[in-house]
Amino acid sequence: MAKFISLFSGCGGIDLGMEQAGHECVAQVEWDKNAAGVLKHRWPNVPLFCDVSKVSADDLPDADFITYGFPCQDLSVAGKRKGLDGKRSGLFYEATRLIRELRTRGCGLRFAVAENVGGLFSADDGVALARCIRELLDSGACETGWRLLDSQYFGVAQRRKRVFIVSDFGGESVDEILAITESLPGYPAPSREAGKGTAGDATKGVGEGGRGYRMTAFGEYQDDETASCMKSRDYKDATDLIAQEPTAFGCDLSQKAEGIGYTKEVAPCIAPGTHAGHGSHVVSWNGDTTPKASEDVSVTLRSQQGGEGVGVAFHTSQDPIHSEEHSPALGSNATIGYQQNLTVRRLTPIECERLQGFPDNWTSEKMELILEGNEWKATGKVVKQADGPRYRQQGNAVTVNVAEWIGKQIGKVLNENTI
Predict the structure, then answer these.
(1) Which of 5, 77, 239, 323 sits in a 20 to 30 Å window from 201, CA-based?
(2) What domains can be seen in the chain, in order of their start residue?
């Protein structure tokens, strides 16, 4: 088991995934009080700080690695594109400051794992990623690399492409951590019948056609067939990425998801082909005027609309999901292409949690907090959380399953080094 520090923790997507991979969270930092309340409720004994710019290495315990899903607002194509010079996305440099301070103290920090949106590739006139890589190398990394991973290939029913940057401060194992190989659990044997649905196209799990960039000696990057790390070696070909069966919707909780290392009971997806002759009847969208028809996955959960623009449509012959916590279906009949008689409603907070790999009701409650200096302290009172913050937290979260997979890859490297 390795110990890790979590910056920009949100509601704990990276933290939960890393813990499911066998690691221990020893400190967290989160600005938003609602999200911090969820963290303190779920990790009551872990020190939780507020403003990352006011945290120093003296506040933090020793750790083997650090995670930081730094803010994306200035990098997203939906924002004003201020890039790493923006007030929010520029907090990336607070993470590297802490990395420097921790290494100077000699705490044994081996890895750093960052997460952000694909807009990182195009921000700052196309050099934002190069700036990140250069800063991490200047912070002492022996090797730094990146890969674009899509959540739908890790056991959840959501298309969500995110950039993960891994830095190794004590060796050159980045390619081993981020490489997608046949050794992954669940890799289908050559004779296995191809599965149905979009998850069958494994090569798209790392971006469009698996294309990426190779860092040059001048800190810039050029088009390449696969993502690579800033060192002499390249990543392995990305065609072996595993296509796991997505899980999110439905009512039968007796079934289990078989994602990568993911065995918690969750509801299965709406089955394609439910209605003869029509195939799947799932349509989802996110604040767009035109719903996106899909076979078995949802579009990306986004925080810009607080998640409230995310909707799902199902055939009127199906029973909508009703309970005291769920609103009944909105609207009436609709026709979208060949899909007729569709009823539309908004995704529930629980469904959004499932789309991100969280257990049901992960964000339904939070601990009331007070701020003492720069540290959040629990009052001891747990309260229910409104839907609005829950939607925003899921839109901002790192998918648990993806974090778990990276955590297991890190664990393999650390175990190899101790043998």
Answers:
(1) 77
(2) 3-244+359-418 (3.40.50.150)
